[in-house]
Amino acid sequence: MCVCVCVCVCLSVFPCDYFFFLPSSLIFSVEDFLNGARVVVSARTYADFTPQATFDIKKCDLHKLDEGPPLQAVLSREEGLQYYRTMQTMRRMELKADQLYKQKIIRGFCHLYDGQEACAVGIEAGINLSDHLITAYRAHGYTLTRGGTVREIMAELTGRRGGIAKGKGGSMHMYTKHFYGGNGIVGAQVPLGAGVALACKYLGKNELCVCLYGDGAANQGQIFETYNMASLWKLPCIFICENNKYGMGTSVERAAASTDYYKRGDFIPGLRVDGMDVLCVREATKLAAEHCRSGKGPILMELQTYRYHGHSMSDPGVSYRTRDEIQEVRSKSDPISMLKDRMLSNNMASVEELKEIDVEVRKEIEDAAQFATTDPEPPLDDLCNHIFYNDPPMEVRGTNPWTKLKSVS
Amino acid sequence: MTAPVPCDICIINSILLLQVTVRDALNQAMDEELERDERVFLLGEEVAQYDGAYKVSRGLWKKYGDKRIIDTPITEMGFAGIAVGAAMAGLRPICEFMTFNFSMQAIDQVINSAAKTYYMSAGLQSVPIVFRGPNGASAGVAAQHSQCFAAWYGHCPGLKVVSPWSAEDARGLLKSAIRDDNPVVFLENELMYGVPFEMSEEVQSKDFLIPIGKAKIERQGTHITLVSHSRMVSLCLDAAAVLAKEGIECEVINMRTIRPLDAEAIETSIMKTNHLVTVEGGWPQFGIGAEILARIMEGPAFNYLDSPAVRVTGVDIPMPYAKILEDNSVPQIKDIIFSIKKTLNV
């Protein structure tokens, strides 16, 4: 005899390990129940968990803006899990890069992003993949959010042929669709980003460009030149200063006459955002994107964030700041912990579920590292390729006059 | 009512050679390329409403408007970077430097953002941009406004560097540069802007292109090879005309492109003439002539030289102002003739 089971099965009658929630449309036989059959329903798919919750987010300081982002953000369970997974992937990827660098498997420059994950993830959540983005050299996180895989990022760091730039770019020169790197010259990416925004406006596709730079770069003259032109020509450009308080070894107080980076655009409206809170970043980005898409011209966001590592792998990062400071940020403001706490305390996910994500992420990183350390280096006959695009093959002089190397597009 | 034009007059009209200045050739080339491809646009100081500091972009803003012809503030690093970014995102900018002296302020964007990107990205990101403007010595503009940048830009892989001489060069090479999918540095010469040249009908056609990387023999000769670029080609031809009266026949090669350098054309010529003199307006050290001579040393033509190859260059000093000093800071026809005679031991 079939019975339409009502919404909730009481624990006291049928002891079982799982508290399960049965939708009213599911039909079981009474016998099954009476036999204590345990019906396992995937804990993920049904609203045992809160499907969405609203969180208070910090108010943003505003410059020449009447209204800031809302003071509350709505987070769905799905979004939360996705942000968590991406931030955790980013974190573990950077830590793995640290390991590989110390083993001398990664060489040269390596600028790690751990601590700043909420910025990259929050920004991407506020724009579309069809929008454009450019940043400086602390770029691994953005390469990921813009569509790169951990595998090809790590293989680029280790200089292998499976790297996202076939091993020819390295840490600072990774590119994907609508992601223009990865740029090594401090500040140079800012005019480039405005140029991308100019193309967006010119081509009329309602796309915008997010143009990132750090607190160190914020004093560069070419950035002010760019503010001027972007504003004059109303380019759809979101300038974002990732203020992690130190430009290499120089604290912001020692580098900038004004550390109100969100005001430095002068005639460009700006907002200062808590860069450790992925929701705060997302809401601010949404506001900024709306501003640009409505034809109002550029806008400037300062994300207050922090990097756990030194400037690069050759900087221990403790000569100009205290270990206590680093530890304090880790314990009080870590972006991943903040999201995790929010989700757990609002019953949006279970501890096990998040642990499972951690395990999956760990595996993905391990697999990627395995690939990155075993994939062969680029073949020597790739040495001279990619000089010119869409050109017939040409000869390139080698190290001596008798060595003539081949170059194809 | 006029009578219909008889056929034989039509034919005569159609082979009429036009006299076109270098300036007008550049202007027409840009006009045609702007018309042909919507993604092409021009930006720089005074290019729009002023009609161009040297009037090279005269009439273009009136025809194409604000979207395609953009006046920039005096911020080279910024607008060169913007131009490169626009090229990365799918447009085909022409970035004008009022003179290449000012490109030094933006040189990081030309080299690190434009030239190297296709390589660094292993082919993912191309940069179809043209940087153009007057290069080298002018008249009375003194040291900061007279430098030749051919050697500096010619040094860098990832760039194509072009240096037209005649109106035909200017037209065909600029069109090729604009259609090229790579960063091209296009070095014009202010003193050549007003010089008229004959332009055949073939050259006047909308799809007339000169391939980048191929030199042209402007004058055939048998006794000595003269290699030059830009305005110095005129001086070489003048020197050749003088020497022809003395029975010395010079072969004058117009490089047209600095990078990639057409070494083969030079070698072929040397194998015929057995002597080489290079002529350039820029400084001698690490310059265009230095590169040509090094290549000849390393290549098959060395064995054909009957005397050491030499360079005629600008004097190794910052450019002075006073006319007598300025005139003596750049190669003159007499300097070229002198060097040729020394090389030929006559």
Describe the model:
Chain B: InterPro entries: PDHB_mito-type, THDP-binding, Transketo_C/PFOR_II, Transketolase-like_Pyr-bd, Transketolase_C. Chain B: This is Pyruvate dehydrogenase E1 component subunit beta. Chain B: Residues 20-195 form the Transketolase-like pyrimidine-binding domain. Chain B: GO terms for molecular function: metal ion binding; pyruvate dehydrogenase (acetyl-transferring) activity. The complex is a heterodimer of chains A (409) and B (346). By secondary structure, chain A is an alpha/beta fold. Chain A folds into two domains: 56-378, Thiamin diphosphate (ThDP)-binding fold, Pyr/PP domains (Rossmann fold, 3-Layer(aba) Sandwich), CATH 3.40.50.970; 380-408, no CATH class. Chain A has twelve helices and 14 strands. Chain A has helices at 30-34, 77-102, 117-126, 140-145, 150-157, 189-203, 221-232, 252-255, 278-293, 323-333, 335-345, 351-374; strands spanning 2-4, 27-29, 52-56, 61-63, 72-76, 132-134, 209-214, 237-243, 246-247, 250-251, 270-274, 299-304, 394-397, 404-407. In chain A, the strands form five sheets. Chain A has a six-stranded mixed sheet, sandwiched between helices. A two-stranded antiparallel ribbon of chain A has the order 1-2. A two-stranded antiparallel sheet of chain A has the order 3-5. In chain A, β7, α7 (221-232) and β8 form a beta-alpha-beta unit. Chain B contains 14 helices and 14 strands. In chain B, α4 (76-88) runs parallel beside α5 (107-115). Chain B folds into two domains: 18-204, Thiamin diphosphate (ThDP)-binding fold, Pyr/PP domains (Rossmann fold), CATH 3.40.50.970; 216-344, Rossmann fold (3-Layer(aba) Sandwich), CATH 3.40.50.920. With 346 residues, chain B is an alpha/beta fold. Chain B has helices at residues 7-14, 22-36, 60-64, 76-88, 107-115, 117-120, 150-154, 167-179, 201-204, 232-244, 263-273, 288-298, 323-327, 333-344, and strands spanning 18-21, 40-44, 69-71, 92-96, 130-134, 160-162, 184-188, 196-199, 216-219, 224-228, 250-254, 257-259, 276-279, 310-312. At the A-B interface, α6 and α7 of A face α4, α5 and α6 of B.
